[in-house]
Amino acid sequence: MEARAYGVFMTQSGTAPITGVLLAAGAGTRLGRGPKALLPFRGRTLVEVVADTLFDGGCREVVVVLGAEAERIRNSTDLERYTVVENAAWAKGMAGSFRTGIEAASQGNSIMVALVDQPGLTPTAVSRLLGSHRPGRITAAAYPDESGQLKRRHPVIIDVGLRAEAAAAASGDTGARSFLKAHPGLVDLVDCSDLCSGEDLDTKDQLHLLEG
Q: Considering the entire predicted model, what is its pTM?
């Protein structure tokens, strides 16, 4: 059951519903195999599997942001139950896709920003992040480095009250990074290393990530 508070639908935990924003606009230039969204994964495409992961993990809705070869991706995938939008300026960097996704998310929802090139993301990791999120805060998946210190990665949940400011701060290829660096005290790190690797698929020597 949900209640309305301050003009926003709130869940029983006091947090706003969360929209998953899946950034899948890149051309996959470094990998050299076309858009990562179309990479084969578990008998489907990577964008389909990761979008389902966000939804199955508990996101109220999922927005998929396309860019490079958007028409080809639309014609080659089944994303009908999700909101699919396009960032025409995708080549200028992640910031445009980030803003496009935020604008397409339902008003009154917090957002979970995820990247299409994280095939290891699991519904249980998404669920842990959702369950850890607190109103007015930023919640980020984190993984220990070689020294054991937790390092922030994706997905990242940006609370509904912060999403407009985060969108305005995005520039170039940084997405939410500049906003997060400017507000370190708002960021809660959640260790997800027992649930998934958190690795990004950027180079050919990481193609083994698609074997899971």
A: 0.90
The CATH code of the domain that includes 196 is 3.90.550.10
Alpha-carbon distance 154 to 109, whole Å?
A: 18
> What range defines the domain where residue 101 resides?
3-211
* Number of independent structural domains in the chain: 1
Cis peptide before 184 (omega within 30 of 0): no
47 contacts: CB under 8 Å, gap ≥ 6: 22, 24, 36, 37, 38, 64, 73, 77, 79, 116
| Separation between Cα atoms, residue 30 and residue 195, nearest integer Å | 27
Note whether 105 and 19 are within 8 A (CB). Answer: yes
Sign, CA dihedral 42-47-50-54, equals negative
b vs e for 81-120, b when ≥16 Cβ sit within 10 Å of the residue's Cβ? ebbbbbbeebeebbbbbbbbbbebbbeebbbbbbbbbbbb
60 DSSP 8-state letter: S
- pLDDT the model gives residue 4: 32
Q: What is the pLDDT of residue 10?
A: 44
If we measure between CA atoms, which residue out of 190, 100, 206, 194 comes closest to residue 151? 190
Dihedral, CA of residue 7, residue 65, residue 80 and residue 212, to nearest 10: -110
CB 16 within 8 A of CB 10: yes
Q: Which pLDDT score is estimated for 198?
A: 83
Regions in the chain scoring below 50 on pLDDT: 1-12
